[in-house]
Design a protein that fits this description.
It contains ten helices and eight strands. With 318 residues, the protein is an alpha/beta fold. It has two domains: 66 residues, no CATH class; 231 residues, Alpha/Beta hydrolase fold, catalytic domain (Rossmann fold). It has an eight-stranded mixed β-sheet, with helices on both faces. β7, α9 and β8 form a beta-alpha-beta unit. α1 packs across α7 and α4 packs across α5.
Length: 318
């Protein structure tokens, strides 16, 4: 048997080190991108000539009066806007944004939702907008939302959780867990563009950008699961699968989903709605992952579906 020459052994060692460095760098970069999303702040809104807070919403939806405050969760002070609604005896609606978004994303929705609510509360998740910290991809944010619910709850006032993308899953998970913890009177959950499993949107966004989206995503989520305390397969702390969590809800669930969503497939939304005890889905024909409310061809359908849902669930808090 031929014995490899010292030169070949040296070359193999160099190639092995290079491959190891590439794998480490690629997985590390993937983990950093996932936990450090781009921040959507007041400055970024101004730069795009868009409203930066509720007082800057143009007519007829605005301007809207609101208060700024922070609440404490997991050792951080997280910022929130508290918008006065048009219905004093209506529910409190808590809006939770998606990955890479912020409470600014609620500005396209609050004018419609606020007509049926006493208050609309919008907050920045850790690592987003003006909030400190990093994104924990829908795990720790559930604790944050439960802390916010406890902060804003009022005696005998119903609450509706309204989230999109990342925030949709966080809202479902918080409502499912909150049933046992009796944190608030949850009348319903509105989930826009939800996804079942944590890696799904990450793979699809990276694929759209023509970046590595295979083994590196698997490895990144395996390591992140260990770091976030949910285990390498994301089964810990009650599990992540939003369809399984939807099955635990005791309140109605409305899913809004565009049938052309390339980030969170509509099949996920259908599965989540189907698993809920009282789940319905409003299919937005031609709708993508973003812009459902700002697109004039989709906004009226979203507003009508959400408005009808809020009217239906009011008075049915669990």
């Amino acid at each position: 048997m031929a014995v490899p020459s010292p030169d070949m052994l040296g070359l193999s060692a160099i190639l092995g080190l290079g491959l190891g460095a590439y794998v480490t760098a690629t997985v590390g970069r993937t983990m950093h991108v996932l936990t450090h999303p781009p921040r959507r702040t007041y400055a970024s809104a101004v730069a795009r000539a868009r409203p930066g807070d509720p007082s800057e919403i143009p007519p007829p939806a605005g301007p809207l009066g609101f208060e700024r405050w922070t609440f404490r969760s997991r050792g951080r002070d997280l910022p929130a806007w508290d918008v006065r609604g048009a219905r004093p005896r209506g529910p409190v609606v808590v809006m939770s944004h998606g990955w890479g978004d912020s409470r600014i994303g609620g500005l396209s929705r609050v004018g419609h939702v606020g007509r049926l609510a006493s208050r609309v509360v919008m907050w920045d998740m850790p690592g987003h907008g003006e909030a400190p910290g990093v994104c924990s991809l829908g795990t720790g944010e559930v604790d944050d939302l439960l802390a916010l619910i406890a902060h804003v709850r009022e005696p005998n006032v119903e609450m509706i959780l309204h989230g999109w993308s990342l925030g949709a899953g966080v809202s479902i998970a918080a409502a499912a867990r909150g049933v046992g913890e009796r944190t608030a009177r949850i009348a319903g959950v509105i989930a826009e563009s939800p996804y079942r499993l944590a890696p799904t949107p990450a793979r699809n966004v990276l694929r759209e950008r023509r970046l590595p989206h295979g083994w590196n995503v698997t490895a990144a989520f395996w390591l992140l699961g260990l770091d976030l305390g949910v285990g390498p397969w994301w089964k810990g702390r009650g599990g992540f699968d939003r369809a399984n969590l939807a099955a635990r809800l005791t309140c109605p669930l409305l899913v809004l989903h565009g049938d052309q969503d390339a980030v969170c497939p509509i099949e996920d939304g259908e599965s989540i709605a189907r698993r809920a005890l009282d789940g319905t889905i409003a299919r937005i024909d031609g709708g993508g992952h973003v812009g459902l409310w700002s697109d004039p061809s989709h906004g009226p359908r979203c507003a009508a579906s959400v408005g009808a849902f809020i009217e239906r669930v009011s008075g049915r808090a669990t």
